[in-house]
Amino acid sequence: MVSNPILEISGTVYDENGIEAVRLKMGDQPFEEISREAEFRKVLGLTKGSNIVDIEAEDEAGNIAFKQVVYTYTPKVPEEDLEPPTIVITSPLPNSTLEAGRHAIEGWAMDDTELTSVQVRVDGGQWLEVTGLSTWYVEVDLDFGKIYLIEARATDSSGNEKIYRVWTTVVIPSETNGGDKGSSGTVIMVVIGFLVIVVAGVFGYLLLGRNRNLSQQLELVRERNRVKEQMRSTGGRRRVRSARTERPPGDQRSDGSDEWK
User: Fold this and answer.
1) What is the CATH number of domain 86-172?
2) Distance CA 27, CA 53 (A)
């Protein structure tokens, strides 16, 4: 019993008078000469079940020897394929940023048995057939200002599938979108101008506060110098009279009071 449908048979014949021919036939087919030498070799294609092979050898005297062999071919039952293919998107990369326009989605795929198809879709749309199989690509149009989910699906001969996903953001307009590009440039200039105004205001506020503190300190120094100058002009100290003074005998205030303060 054999499990391969392709079978190579070989053998050797001998006769003292020499070999005239070696012939072979399968089933009801006629004999076919396969050699005129002592050694022979033949590749056969088997069908499922029993395969009857007849071989005859004839010497130069016309004597014939005959041999029959039966080969039973039983196809090998393949093991159940439960392993899905492997697939990867190589461009664009995950979480990448692209310009708006037409882009090639590229990648590779492989399977341990047989890879049958690779498809790509964008944002849950229709599956697109790619060019290639183990290495593949397909071109798609991507609009400005959107975040896209790109999926690639590989399928093998057993129906196993594998899906690979990447997210990509299209935030930079292409050069053909002049209006959008100009609008974006205007917005950026406005934001920069606003930031310049804010920074200048904060700097001015801090500088003004610092100048105010310096002015107060200068005024305090001037006041201290003024006081010191007055003290020098009065001999270095101040005299304060707060004692009571008695009136001279016989003296009286005009209001009739007898006290002097």
Assistant:
1) 2.60.40.650
2) 7
> What is the distance between the alpha carbons of residues 86 and 162, in angstroms, rounded to a whole number?
7
Superfamily of domain 6-73: Immunoglobulins (2.60.40.10)
Identical fold for domains 6-73 and 86-172, yes or no, is yes
What ranges do the domains of the chain cover?
Answer: 6-73, 86-172, 180-236
Which pair of tokens denotes residue 54? 């007849």
User: Taking residues 78-95, what's their average pLDDT?
Assistant: 88
pLDDT (tens digit per residue) in 32-51: 999 999 899 999 888 889 99
